[in-house]
Write a structure and sequence with these properties.
Blueprint (H helix, E strand, L loop, with lengths): L2 H19 L7 H21 L20
């Protein structure tokens, strides 16, 4: 499954849980958005400075020949 869809589903689930429990967000919306922007920029900076030799995915499937019964 696409990691973006998994992330979106997890965010919506946590949002629903917060709503059902009537819990306020631990950070004001502006601070939370600035934090998320910082995470995105930091991740992009790491990838720009140290490019990966082989693109990797979060959910790699093992080879069919390496699975033993």
């Amino acid at each position: 499954m696409n990691p973006l869809l998994v992330s979106l589903a997890a965010g919506v689930s946590i949002g629903l849980l917060y709503g059902l429990l009537k819990v306020r967000s631990p950070a004001p919306p502006a601070i939370a958005l600035v934090g998320l922007l910082g995470m995105l920029l930091g991740g992009a900076l790491v990838h720009a400075v140290t490019p990966a030799e082989k693109p990797s995915t979060a959910l790699e499937q093992p080879d069919a020949t390496s699975v033993s019964s």
